[in-house]
């Protein structure tokens, strides 16, 4: 075994020991960062590539500031898509972005995707039409939708066959949505937070009025609407300009796996509802402590065996070389 291989195993150990945080909606739900579906400056690796994402179209990356999907120029399309699917059953995605430009007239908009298709440029905010999965659209240009203030944020669940109703700003496809007047060029960081519990709920919150203050756009329950996101879905972002234009910037993307901690010391998936034994705090600490101690002991023992094997093999090779002389 060579030293680089040992280093790779130690890196995997670091991935296995990612920090666990409490989910703010429920103290019993914990979150684990998903590095495979997160982006932050400088966005690229040392060889100017991204290990986990592909970029295309007119996308430009400024490593210290943003990923610009479109510049403030007409007829641009840009996209970013994950290379591996998001297979977690329950998750939360938080996106910080910026939509801004110099003109008084602007368009067209920005989208987040969780779809079976990936990295395919097209006419729906820079990505493909007739998609299968979930699209979240931030539409900044009003075509034909009376009585609705823009920018307008909406969700569409695609079945792989239905075309996006572009002429009426998605009215025929809308699963849920809300007006977000002031989101474009907001004086505070603009953010989108999408939370999904499989077969239970889908929630979209926005930050654009006040920093650290979230506005609920919609919350859907499984018994009210079809929120069945494909079990294998790629996470993507895209944007488009037409005759009118805007800068569409991705600042950061953070994805987290959500799971529920059993009050008796175990975990039972990301169940946001159901009974919880809140009176068993006395038995919780010893079980959790014992579980973590045993886990850490096994990790140390495993890597100790690897290190021991490496040095043993090194000594063996030295003896073999010495015997030749």
TrEMBL record:
One of its GO terms (molecular function) is D-mannose binding. GO terms for cellular component: COPII-coated ER to Golgi transport vesicle; endoplasmic reticulum membrane; endoplasmic reticulum-Golgi intermediate compartment; Golgi membrane. Pfam families: Lectin_leg-like. Keywords: Membrane, Signal, Transmembrane, Transmembrane helix. It is found in: Membrane. Residues 262-288 are annotated as: Disordered. Gene3D superfamilies: 2.60.120.200. The chain crosses the membrane at residues 292-316. PROSITE patterns: L_LECTIN_LIKE. Residues 262-283 have a biased composition (Low complexity). It comes from the Eukaryota. It is a single-pass type I membrane protein. Residues 1-22 form the signal peptide. This is L-type lectin-like domain-containing protein. It comes from Penicillium cinerascens.
